[in-house]
Amino acid sequence: MARSSQMFRPSTSRDIAQIGRLLRELEGQLAHLAKSVAFDARDAGSGVPDMISQVLSDLSDRFRTTVQSSARTVGHEATRVGAGAWHKIEDEVVNRPLAALAIAAGIGFLIGALNRR
Predict the structure, then answer these.
(1) Separation between Cα atoms, residue 89 and residue 94, nearest integer Å
(2) Theoretical Cys-Cys bridge with 93: which of 11, 31, 100, 110, CB 3.0 to 4.6 Å?
(3) Alpha helices, DSSP H, located in the chain
(4) Is the pTM of this model over 0.70?
């Protein structure tokens, strides 16, 4: 095991040195880009509102698609739950018709009382 770790050590230090060189090169390129952006900022200022408008439009489209998909899912779930509740009510009315009649009469009385006010 010690022998295999010695085999990889020189390549690891070469890799680390290569990564260091790449990072320094990237820093140089980023510094050049920053200078270029600062120089071109005056010219880019006119295109910024259009870019912002396009990004906001894209986000709006994605948001709309997500909301529509969620609304469909919620609608299907509400339909399923409503159908289940309706079947339970039907079962209770069939099994306990007098209790259902009393509840309906009570609801009618409450609606009538509220309607007088």
Answers:
(1) 9
(2) 100
(3) 2-44, 48-95, 97-116
(4) no
